[in-house]
Amino acid sequence: MMVVESEAVVLCAQDYGESDRIVTFFSVEWGLVRAMAKGARRSRKRFVHAFEPNSVVQVGLRQRRALSWVESCRLVEGHLALRSDPLRWAYAGLLVETTLRLNPENLPNPTYYVLLRSGLARLGTDRDPANVAALFLVRAMRILGALPSLERCCQCGRTMAEASLWRLSLAAGRFSCGAHSAADKEGIDLDKGAAALLQAMLQAPVEKIWRFRLRKRAVHGLIKAVCAWVEDHTGQSLKSRRLLHRMETGPEIPAPSSTSAALVVSP
Ligand SMILES: [Zn+2]
């Protein structure tokens, strides 16, 4: 079997037996893929700093019937800015964990790869990591086909210009205007500005979405709503969400500063 190379993000790595590790990547070539790194625990020289979560690597896999083997793995981007900041690191954990939960193995999704790679890079530099996480989660839902259309009210057909309040329900797959809010018990409320911003963000090229800024309330509402959907959908709770909740409510690390009132600003 020949070795095929791909750029990839390291999602996680676990020890296996005496000397090996099993590494999970999200790659350009294969999407989500798990592979055995033979001897990775014994010889640190062979794979120098290559299996740190959130790192971008160039990986060479020898494909086998059961589990591929890692033949080479070279660090491309270690995201040091993320590693030195616990809150940014925790948000990176949320991006990685939702990627693990929502993507099937061995299904290439180059658009999702660009979203993940650029999202992790932006998390290291953006003044508001929560905003980056919210944009990532909403766009990921769209890429994976789990987000309803935000073009118009799914119940009465009103367009964005014709209503000032909107409700997005991921569980019901509905985006509806405020006229139905008495009947629609579940979902996140969005004002016209936030709804229009999401609509514009969903139409922008994936690597360019990070300049969009949601208000703080929408940021946290969207993160909560997508996390709840992921947990319902997979039947597993998200550890990273619980960690973030503790960090943002605990005394030791301040919550990210509130976002600008401006809806869209340049990077
Ligand atoms: Zn309506």
From TrEMBL:
DNA replication/recombination mediator RecO N-terminal domain location: 2-77
Keyword line: DNA damage, DNA recombination, DNA repair
Highest taxon, organism lineage: Bacteria
GO cellular component: bacterial nucleoid
Transmembrane segments: none
GO biological process, one term: double-strand break repair
InterPro entries: ARFGAP/RecO, DNA_rep/recomb_RecO_N, NA-bd_OB-fold, RecO, RecO_C
Function: Involved in DNA repair and RecF pathway recombination.
Entry similarity comment: Belongs to the RecO family.
Protein name: DNA repair protein RecO
Recorded name of the encoding gene: recO
